[in-house]
Amino acid sequence: MQLAMGLKERERGKLVFRKVIIPATGQGTRLIPATKVQPKEMLPIFSKSSDGNACVKPMVQFIFENGYAADLRENCCCDRL
Predict the structure, then answer these.
(1) Three-state SS letters, 13-74
(2) Verdict on whether the full-model pTM lies above 0.85
């Protein structure tokens, strides 16, 4: 999944992104049989927490947390059409 970012303003000659659009559409046919049980947006991602322990998060939560850490506060998740 890629993040498509919306431009809001310019500061000191460089572009500043403030909005995130997450395209989470589609049926997830390449991920069958996992997507027959749950949507691909909710598939688990294994990562390290801030204290170094392993944790499991849904894919969408992982993307939102990374956007928040990058100071992107306005989010829009486009789900199935």
Answers:
(1) CEEEEEEEEEECCCCCHHHCCHHHHCCHHHCEEEEECCCCCEEEEEHHHHHHHHHHHCCCCE
(2) no
